[in-house]
Amino acid sequence: MKNKTAHLYLIFLFALLYAPIFFLVLYSFNAGTTMQGWQGFTWSHYQELFSDYHLIEIVLDTLVLALLSALIATTVGTVGALLINRQKNRIWKNTLLSLNNVLLVSPDVIIGASLLILFTVCGFSLGFISTLFAHIAFSIPIVVLMILPRLQEMSHSLIDAAKDLGANDQQVLSQVTLPYISPGILAGFFMAFTYSLDDFAVTFFVTGNGFTTLSVEIYSRARQGVSLEINALSTIMFLVSIILVLFYYLINQRANRQRKNKLTKMVLPGERE
């Protein structure tokens, strides 16, 4: 009875979460111009979407921005997580972690406004570069949070064993530490990419000079009335998100299998002879 209740609760919960998305996807095929009633099936909104070159350009700019910010934030965040984990002073280490967590819980409006003030005071023109810096800034704490747990659960005996075998610090980092924390690095990259892709509040403050992102453009168009062309675009982005999740899952599963195979070869060397 408890299992049945739990299953019903989970079905209700996920139905509640996904119902608006499926409603949006359904009406992307509506022959009408609004979401007020179903008037038949059509592909016309997708045709309008692919003929709107301005919107396609914004989508490409948003993807480039998300990819660049995620790559840079993942690199900087990985180095930051390694440095924080190596701190011997407990007070200093906890201070760094607290500063990182403060950025995670700070309202996006405050972060966006503070970055806008910073760019204005420094005389930095708003545009792609300012938006890129802003996205890197709020993505780095996310990457650090994804990687630190992997570093903390890593046994120091692995590093000691590598050094006993003659490995230097660079070899330990490249052949022991980085492969071990690679799932955390990959998770941090995908989280940073996703946050950059759908961010609105921070981006709204730091865009300018003709550059905009998809979230800001959708907001601007929604103020004039939501077109079903946006439904079509949202449907495509939702499908891309599903593909990315499946891709991450497959990579993670493959990495886990490879790790288990290596452990098996290390623990059972005599059984293969």
TrEMBL record:
Subcellular location: Cell membrane
Keyword Transmembrane helix on entry: yes
Keywords, ordered alphabetically: Cell membrane, Membrane, Transmembrane, Transmembrane helix, Transport
CDD domains given in the database record: TM_PBP2 (cd06261)
InterPro entries linked: Bact_Polyamine_Transport (IPR051789), MetI-like (IPR000515), MetI-like_sf (IPR035906)
GO cellular component: plasma membrane
TM region positions: 7-29, 63-84, 96-119, 125-148, 178-197, 230-251
Keyword Membrane: yes
Span of domain ABC transmembrane type-1: 59-248
Membrane topology: Multi-pass membrane protein
GO biological process: transmembrane transport
Family per record: Belongs to the binding-protein-dependent transport system permease family. CysTW subfamily.
Protein name, as recorded: ABC-type spermidine/putrescine transport system permease subunit II
Taxonomic source organism: Convivina intestini
